[in-house]
Each structure stands twice: as C-alpha cells, then as structure tokens.
Write a structure and sequence with these properties.
The complex is a heterotrimer of chains A (252), B (313) and C (95). Chain A is mainly alpha-helical. In chain A, 65% of the residues lie in helices and 0% in strands. The radius of gyration of chain A is 18 Å and the shape is globular. The mean pLDDT of chain A is 98. Chain B is mainly alpha-helical and 313 residues long. A two-stranded antiparallel ribbon of chain B has the order 1-2. The model of chain B has no long low-confidence stretch (mean pLDDT 93). With 95 residues, chain C is of the alpha+beta class. The radius of gyration of chain C is 21 Å and the shape is elongated. The mean pLDDT of chain C is 88. Classes of the chains: A mainly alpha (252), B mainly alpha (313), C alpha+beta (95). Chains A and B meet through helix 1, helix 2, helix 3, helix 5 and helix 6 of A and helix 2, helix 3, helix 11 and helix 12 of B.
C-alpha cells in the first residue's frame, strides 16, 4: 500500500463516519422533542455533513481518478463504506441519539485535537475547523446526558439503557489497521491509543456527573475497518443514493 | 382613561402608521385576529418542515443536502420567531401547539400536498416560498410591532430560499430529458395549490376587511395573486416550461396576465382536512410532541433540582 | 402530568466586541445552559453575534405606554443637556 492509497482510505473513513452520522441526525429534522432542540440538532447535522463534504472533496483529489466528492458518497456500496458502525444505528429514542452523540462528540473532540497537528495540511485544516464545531457539539450532548441522568426516573432509565446498548460499538472507534500504522509513521494519522485514554477519562467524568454506570466487560463489535457493517447501513445507502443511481447521467 | 379614549389612541396610531406594541391597549377583535393569523403562520412554518424534510436524506448531492438542511432549519426558526410574537399577545406556546395538534388551528393548505419527486423540492422553494415571500414582504409593515419585526428577520433569511428552489429547477429544466419532465410535472402539480396560498377571491374572503382596516394586511388576496402570476410567468418561460393554464394570456390593458382561478372546491376541502396529506402531517406533529414529552419533563425536573428556574413573578 | 415548553427567555446579542447588547428576540428553554445554547442555535445561525445574554422574561420590568408622558416628556425640554445648546467661537474649532 502506498502512502497515497493509505491517505485515501483514511480520509474516506473520516468522511463516511461524518456522512452517515449526519444522515441519521437529519432524520430528526422536523421531528425533534421541541422546536428549539429540533433546530439545535439540525445545526449539528449541518456541521457534520459539511465536514463530510470537505473530506470527500479532499479524498477525490487524493485519488485523482476523476471520481468527484459526490461520486464517492453516492456511488460506492455498503461493503466499501468505512464509517464506524455506531453512526449507522437507528436513532432510537432521544436518549439513544444523545448518548451516541456524546460518545462520538467526545471521540471527535480528542481525535480532531490530535489531527490538527497532522503533517498533512489539508487534514490539519479540516480538523482545525471541525474542532470548533465539535467543542460545541460535545457541550450540547454532554449537557443533555446530564439532564437525562439527573432528570426524571424515566429519563435516567432511558439514558442508562442507551449507554448499555451503545457501549459495544465504542471499541471500534479506536481500532487501527495498516493504514493507520503507515500514516502514523509519516506523521499524518492520529495514534488512536492516545485518543482512547483521554476519551475514557472524559466519559468517566461525564457518566459520574450524570449518575450513570459504565457498562463493564462488554464484548466489542467490530468490522467497519473492513467494510463490514450492521444490517442498517445498506438501507441508509439505498435511500440516500437512490436518485444518482436511478439517473446516472443526470447532474443535480 | 375610559375605553373610548383608548380606542382613539389606538386608531390614531394606525392612522399615523405607527406600530402597536404588546402593552398597548388594543380592541379584543384585533388581538384575536392577530393570534389567529400569527399562529397559523407559525404552524405553517412548522408543518412546512415535513414535506421538505422528507427529502433531506434523499437529496441527490452533498451540496443539495446541506442546503436543504439549512433551509428546513430556517423554517423551524421562523416558526419559532412567530410563536414568540404570538406569545406577546398573552397566549402560551402550549396552547397554540395544542390547537394545532387537535386540528383546531389551521395552517397553510399547501403543505397538505405531497412532495413526490426531487423536483417538488425545487417547486416548493421557487413557487411556494415565492408566494410566501410576497405575503411576508407586505407583512413587514404590518401594524403589530412584534409581528412586523419577526417578518423583517424572516424576509432577510428567506431570501435564499426561493433562489435555492429556482436553482434546483434550472438544473432539472436544462438537464436530461427525464429531469426536464420531472420539472414540468412538479410545476403542473404545484401551480394551482400555490395560487390558492393567497386565499379565496376578495369577494369571498371573510377576514380580509378587518385585516385591511387594522393594517394587519396591506394588499388584498387577488392583488397579491395577480402580482405573483406576473412575476412568475417570465421565470417559467426562462426555464422552457409551460404553465398548466390554457387561459393564461398577457392583458395589455391591465398590464398583467389573465389566468384561471384555482379550484376553490378543492381548496375548501384541503383546508377542512380532506387534502392528500392532512392526516399524516398532523400525525407526524402529534407523534413528535408526544414522544418529546419525557424529554421536556426531564429537562424541567433537572432545572428544578439545580434551581435553575426563576419562579419569581 | 405537567407538559410545557419551558419558561420564556429574552435574548440580547452583541454584534461585535465593544458594542452594546441589543434585544433580538425570545425563546423557550428549561435552564440557563439551554437558554444560551438555544440562543446560539436560533439567533446566530448567520454569524450575527459574538456574545449572548439570556434573561428570564419574568425578570424584566417594563414601563407602560401610559408612562410615556410622565417618564419621558420631562426630558424633552432640557436642551442644555445637549452640546448644540452651547456656542463656541469659530476660532476654537471642534470641541
């Protein structure tokens, strides 16, 4: 594998993760628990989808084979998608959405903080922009985890259930492959083991503040680094990619 | 001051084109009319998020996806501005939402039509927002201060919405044959429902007279409709599409187009609940509200525990 | 079961550092942090501000329309409070 191939895979992984999470979050638009929160969540979806767009544009230039950013998003199949599985899970109730958001926001916060130091200027630049957005996302999701944890009995149960359900998908966030190894060597990729320590500490604090119990001895799901996903992803793509695939000659 | 004196002050404000503010005295009918109109307007924004939101997950390009997300979010924001404007008249958002959810309150009939294809998203932005803007521009000068100020903000933000819709239409109209057909089909289905947005003909409009007298409205339904047709026909021609109206013809003497009236029987039916999507729109709003109840309760309980709420007078 | 949208807050935005805070509208929120976040998401979507104040609506005391006379008219004839009331010789220039 060349550095260029590795960089392409690496950028796609971040792009796919953002796109699929943005896709899920935008399902809430118009259906939020109250109007102000509807707008807040849509803002987050907008940031994340915007980041995906920049990343696909960069991936397109890295690959340099005439595939556009839209081609990469709309014309690859589920086995070629590299997003973390946690992003493709159905939204569930609002507690599930918020807990997933807190887990991913917290990961993104430390991940992008490291990525700003990347020797790849474009990735560092995208991280620079994203870190500001993610800082806000994390503040939003954390404050809701706290509210649910220490709100009513019902909200406490719901957010604890969400945590229990989602925890099995957190191992995957930190998995590294030969792509990571190769790019870490040249100072481009982030060493995810370092992110993991910080993430863990931050999550521990948040869960404690929110009177929640961290699940122990959880068997972690895996697969997305090899393009293996939950059953949900193919449905997401079928919906998302329908038009460009139905009208292959059309420009939108 | 006795009632007459208050009324005099109110009338003189209207006469001088001054704004009426929340704490000012106002006739009970004026207040009622405003609550009805502003909340209908707010409901329309919120219900309007549904047919467009439909297509966010299916938008055919990354650019189209972020633009549509931003646009639908704006509609939500506009609903919010309007609800808070209505609240200055002494009604709570809870009450207003309850009226919407139980079917007691009305919203713009246009959102009871389905968005079947991507071209519909273009048509909604171009035609429906175009028609809405015409109304809204007029309402920036409406006599009730909070409503007028909300409209100023809304108009500023809406300005990209119509352009976004028209851009989609240009991509389609100048795209492949399939795309052009999709655009024409959308125009065929949205033309008359859009014409209905201005309300019944002046001769049959029950609320118009007071609205004009109080300067809540400043132009009649028919005046606005004519303006819309005059503005839109050249745009249709530019796109190379055809307005689905055989009677459409330039009339030199009135410097405007003659056009066919929409089907007012259909209009009355859609307004009173028989449109293609009335039930599903209300169901979606009710579902979101119901499923959000525990979220709001949790937030309230948390705030009480942390003594974050100001319970003072 | 009580079910509401939370208390109403009044939102003030500062457009640029050093400028005054100006009222831009209201919203519902259940606590202070939420009021700030909602204000950010609702009223600064187009970069309209750099700082936010959120004030519970019920903490605001307002004058009444009837107060216009006694409150504000007495200030109208105090012309000596304005710089244009005083004559400065041309030779002095700007003061």
């Amino acid at each position: 594998m060349t550095t260029q191939e590795a960089l392409f895979q690496y950028t796609l992984r971040i792009a796919d993760t953002n796109l699929i999470l943005g896709q899920r979050l935008s399902e809430w638009t118009g259906h939020g628990p109250f109007l102000e929160e509807d707008l807040a969540l849509t803002n987050i979806a907008l940031d994340i989808t915007g980041a995906a767009k920049s990343l696909y544009e960069y991936a397109s230039t890295i690959e340099n084979k005439g595939r556009s950013a839209d081609d990469l998003a709309y014309l690859r199949n589920d086995r070629q998608f590299l997003n973390n599985q946690i992003t493709e899970l159905p939204n569930g109730d609002y507690a599930m959405t918020i807990m997933r958001q807190a887990i991913v926001d917290c990961f993104d916060f430390y991940f992008y903080s490291e990525l700003t130091k990347s020797k790849d200027e474009t990735l560092a630049g995208i991280a620079q922009k994203s870190i500001k957005e993610v800082t806000y996302h994390l503040r939003h999701s954390s404050s809701w985890v706290e509210r649910f944890g220490d709100g009513t009995e019902e909200s406490h149960t719901r957010i604890q259930n969400a945590l229990n359900e989602l925890w099995q998908y957190t191992g995957e966030l930190f998995e590294m492959t030969e792509v990571d190894a190769l790019l870490i060597k040249v100072g481009i990729a982030v060493d995810l083991s370092k992110v993991k320590d910080k993430w863990q500490k931050h999550m521990d604090d948040l869960l404690q503040k929110s009177t929640l119990e961290k699940p122990e001895n959880v068997f972690m799901q895996t697969g997305s680094r090899k393009g293996i996903h939950t059953e949900h992803l193919a449905f997401i793509l079928a919906e998302m990619q329908a038009l460009p695939r139905m009208y292959p000659d059309a420009k939108w | 001051m006795e009632e007459n004196k208050f009324e005099e002050v109110f009338e003189s404000k209207l006469a001088k084109n001054e704004m009426v503010e929340p704490k000012d005295w106002m006739p009970e009918n004026y207040r009622k009319h405003l609550i009805r109109q502003i909340s209908q307007h707010a409901h329309s924004e919120i219900v309007g998020m549904l047919p467009e939101g439909n297509w966010i997950t299916r938008a055919p390009s990354l650019r189209a996806k972020v633009v549509l997300l931003a646009k639908v979010q704006d509609e939500g924001g506009h609903g919010l501005y309007l609800y808070t404007a209505a609240e200055t008249l002494g009604v709570s958002r809870d009450e207003l939402l309850n009226n919407l959810h139980t079917g007691k309150a009305k919203y713009s009939s246009i959102f009871n039509y389905p968005t079947l294809t991507w071209a519909d998203i273009g048509a909604v932005g171009w035609l429906v927002d175009g028609a809405a803007i015409m109304n809204q521009v007029m309402l920036q000068r409406t006599s009730y201060g909070p409503y007028a100020r909300a409209m100023v903000r809304i108009c500023k933000e809406e300005s990209f919405h119509q352009r976004q819709g028209f851009e989609i239409m240009t991509h389609l109209a100048f795209g492949t044959a399939d795309q052009k057909a999709m655009a024409q089909d959308a125009l065929n289905r949205w033309w008359y429902p859009t014409m209905m947005m201005f309300g019944p003909p002046d001769s049959e409009s029950p609320n118009s007279e007071n609205a004009l007298k109080w300067r809540i409205k400043r132009e009649t339904n028919d005046q606005l409709r004519q303006k819309f047709v005059n503005q839109t026909v050249p745009q249709v021609e530019y796109l190379g599409l055809t307005v689905p109206d055989k009677n459409l013809k330039w009339n030199e003497s009135k410097k405007g187009y003659d056009y066919s009236e929409p089907d007012w029987v259909e209009f009355k039916n859609v307004i009173s609940g028989n449109g293609p999507c009335n039930k599903q729109r209300l169901l979606a709003r009710n579902k979101a509200h119901k499923e959000g109840a525990w979220v709001r309760e949790a937030a309230q309980a948390f705030a009480r525990k942390r003594k974050e709420v100001y319970e003072a007078a | 079961m009580s079910d509401n949208q939370g208390p109403v807050w009044e939102i003030f935005l500062q457009k640029k550092a050093g400028q005054p805070f100006v009222h831009c509208g209201s919203l519902h929120a259940f606590d202070k942090e939420m009021a700030l976040q909602n204000a950010r998401d609702l009223y600064t979507r187009r970069g309209e501000g750099v700082s936010i104040w959120a004030v519970p609506s019920n903490a605001i005391v307002a004058s009444s329309p009837e107060d216009i006379g006694p409150f504000f008219e007495p200030a109208n004839d105090k012309v000596y409070r304005h710089p244009t009331f005083y004559q400065i010789p041309d030779a002095i220039g700007h003061m």
